[in-house]
Amino acid sequence: MTVEAACPLTARDYKSDYKPVWCPGCGDFSVLLAITKALAEVGRPPEEVAVVSGIGCSSRVPAYTNCYGFHGVHGRALPLATGLKLTRPDLLVLAAGGDGDGYSIGGNHFMHACRRNVDLTYVVMDNQVYGMTKGQPSPTTSPEWDSALVPGGTGLRPFHPLVIALAAGANFVARSFSGDPNGTAELIVEAIRHPGFSLIEVLSPCVTFRPEEREWAKQVHPAPVEPTDDRGRAARRVLTDDGFNIGVLYRGRRRPYQPPFGQAQVEVAEFEAEFLP
């Protein structure tokens, strides 16, 4: 064994040389740190990790990691991540995105990713606003949030991703706060190690379009109850909490979906020949 191979991996090993272009003070900086710390704790080398995203501020994460990455189109992170994990079960697959990308145009993919329960982890940085496109309300925005784009608020009931995840069949559900990167990293590690589809909702303030979210640091608190493996109980807890309970909310026991692999029926050369003149 070489000296290099014997050295433990650190968060720096998972960071690329690209400098993040998020606004100063954005919570996504801390989430990126938490992701790299978590990957170092899990210990899989960067070449055995794939980070997949869609579109949005938080979806820039793949470019800032030193792993395999795929920056997909809007709302399509989860089908890409699912397909990758099914065809390359040897890889650690992590999907990253935001509330707009994941729950609006990506909402249907989100539900079915929970239902399929493929062994991957989805980290959603929820700031309750479309930050990259200048402050429109997102699916998780409260109905009364007043802004220049939507005076008086939308009046629409917000999407509740944790309850949807539980109802659809996610196997691990947790919530964290970007202001606690160490705690977020611990949850990501647990999510990665838990079999099946894992969702981590990270409350990540947008200090540019929603500066009032800085107050989240004073509102978050550890969940007052232990995690449960009862979906109904977990859903009731989430529906009745204040939205700021931090920690693991649900650990399921569903078996992950992974179809068996057999011998390829057609060689690549034969397949290509069908498309050649």
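[next item in queue]
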Amino acid sequence: MDMSIAALSVDMSSARTQQELGISVLKLAMETQTAGVEEALEVVESLDPALGNNIDITA
């Protein structure tokens, strides 16, 4: 296998670019997930703490 230095350089650059893109996508996914969790926590915190404590069983 006889690869030139230029070809190796291009391959390494391409691999680095792909890795950076993958990291960027993962960071975006983590930020989106964090925002979703924060919104869910806000909803849970706004609920009435007494909600569900009493059950009306008369029918």
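[queue empty]
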